[in-house]
Every structure is written in structure tokens, then in C-alpha cells.
Design a protein that fits this description.
By secondary structure, the protein is an alpha+beta fold. It has a five-stranded mixed β-sheet with strand order 1-2-3-5-4, with helices on one face. Helix content is 59%, strand content 13%. It has a domain of 143 residues: 2-Layer Sandwich (Heat Shock Protein 90). It catalyses: ATP + protein L-histidine = ADP + protein N-phospho-L-histidine. This is histidine kinase. Pfam families: HATPase_c (PF02518), HisKA_3 (PF07730).
Length: 269
């Protein structure tokens, strides 16, 4: 028969070993759990990033194809036809009687080429100054299709917190909004307003483009507007830089495009 003291000592050793085992488990289990949770979060984030990247790539490619189609249509419907007609006039026996008309056609074609070139790569966009770029945009658009463009920039408006990419995307959104109004709204005037926040608003840059045109039904014409008026591209640009874009319109009441770019730059004293 085993000595009671030896049996107690053996039981104590067994209990001690179990205590050590469970202590190790208690320490390791949370650590393993945390590491597993981190791994899952990183995996989900990677998948989300990949999905968003693919989606953006898709819309980028589609946007490029739509832009190419638009340029092709403009070249064919305006410049090519005018140049072809001018050429036919120049080949006539009485061409000297049509020199003024030929010159006018060629002058108009040259203006169209300049306009296309400006829309593709405005010469001043490299300045990364959204305020100056908006001024240039409004000056370029003023008078097109008989539309007057009125620009208002509140004194002291600060856009220095914008990165070069943010300034570029905001410019493209404004450019698309103005182009839509000029080509489709049948408006007489476009009003552009650039300002910073008021006392009750979130800090950042606010951009508004409105027209007094025919407007559209945003609820019923969303698909058509997205396809033909570039709304999806504007939304994608806004989403890419973390801006908030809203489009308000109704038939006969014009259209208002609003863009808010938050100022997330932290200032330290």
C-alpha cells in the first residue's frame, strides 16, 4: 500500500501540472484568437481592396472607351463634315467665289479642334490649383451654345489642402457638369460657386454647378443619365478621392451638382 504522504505529493504534482497547462492555454488562446482575427480582417480587407480595384479598373476602361466614342462622333459630325465640304468648295471651278465660306468653315473646324484638345488636356491643369483651373474652365465654357457662365469664388477660399490628384478629379467633375449643361440642358446660364465651409458645415471645399435648363427626372431617368451624361464617372471620381457628390434636378427646374471635399489635414499648434 502506497504511503499517504507519497500519494498526496503525487496528487499535488498532478494538480500543479494541470494548473500550469490551463494557465498556458489561458494565455495562448487569446493571443491565438487575436492573431486569427487579425488574419481574417486582413484577408477580408485584401479581398475588398481587390474587388474595388477591379471595379475601378472596369469603370476606368469603360470611361476611356466612351470618351473615345464621343471624340470620334464629334470629329465625324462636325470637323470632318465641315472640312469635307470646304474641300468640295475648293475643287469647284468657281472656288474663288467661295473663299470666304471656305475660310469660315476652316476657322470653325480649328476652334472645334482647340476645344477638343482643351477638354482632353487643359494647358493649365498641371498647376494643381483648383481655383485657377475652375476660373479657366468657366472662361473656356462661357459663350458656348449661347450659354453664359457666371463664376463666384468667396474671398479667402482655401483649397491648399488638396492633393494634385484631388484637384484633378474635382476639376474633371466640374468640367463634366458644365459640359452636360452646355450640351443638354438648353439653359441660358450656368452658375458656378466655390467656397469653404460656413459655421454650421463640415470643414472642406464646396463646389456647386447649377443651370436654369430643362432638367430631368432623377428617379426615372437615372439609367439614361448614367449612360449618356457621365454621372457614373463623376460619382466614381468623387468616391475615389473621398468627396461627396449629389445631383438634384427635376423637369423644368434646372440641375444642381454639388461636390464637397472634406479637409482632413490635421493642423497642429
Amino acid at each position: 500500500m502506497q504511503d499517504p504522504a507519497s500519494e498526496i505529493a503525487a496528487l499535488q504534482a498532478m494538480v500543479h501540472s494541470y494548473i500550469q497547462f490551463f494557465l498556458v492555454i489561458d494565455v495562448l488562446f487569446p493571443v491565438v484568437g487575436v492573431l486569427l482575427a487579425i488574419a481574417i480582417i486582413k484577408f477580408v480587407a485584401t479581398l475588398k481592396k481587390l474587388k474595388e480595384s477591379d471595379e475601378y479598373l472596369f469603370y476606368t476602361i469603360r470611361g476611356q472607351e466612351e470618351e473615345r466614342s464621343r471624340i470620334s462622333r464629334e470629329l465625324h459630325d462636325t470637323i470632318a463634315q465641315d472640312v469635307r465640304y470646304a474641300l468640295s468648295l475648293s475643287e469647284r471651278k468657281d472656288a474663288q467665289h467661295h473663299l470666304a465660306e471656305i475660310a469660315q468653315l476652316l476657322k470653325g473646324s480649328l476652334l472645334e479642334v482647340r476645344s477638343l484638345s482643351y477638354n482632353l488636356a487643359p494647358p493649365d491643369i498641371t498647376k494643381d490649383d483648383i481655383i485657377e483651373n475652375i476660373k479657366d474652365l468657366c472662361a473656356e465654357c462661357n459663350g458656348k451654345n449661347g450659354v453664359s457662365v457666371r463664376l463666384s469664388i468667396i474671398d479667402g477660399t482655401d483649397a491648399s489642402f488638396l492633393t494634385a490628384d484631388e484637384a484633378l478629379h474635382l476639376y474633371r467633375i466640374a468640367q463634366e457638369a458644365c459640359t452636360n449643361s452646355i450640351k443638354h440642358s438648353k439653359s441660358a446660364e450656368i452658375a458656378v460657386l466655390v467656397r469653404n465651409e460656413t459655421a454650421a458645415e463640415e470643414k472642406g471645399l464646396y463646389l456647386f454647378i447649377s443651370d436654369d435648363g430643362v432638367g430631368f427626372d432623377t428617379a426615372r431617368a437615372r439609367t439614361g443619365f448614367t449612360k449618356h451624361y457621365g454621372l457614373k464617372g463623376m460619382q466614381n471620381r468623387a468616391q475615389l478621392i473621398g468627396a461627396l457628390l449629389t445631383v438634384r434636378s427635376s423637369r423644368g427646374e434646372g440641375t444642381l451638382v454639388s461636390v464637397f471635399m472634406p479637409n482632413l489635414v490635421q493642423t497642429t499648434i
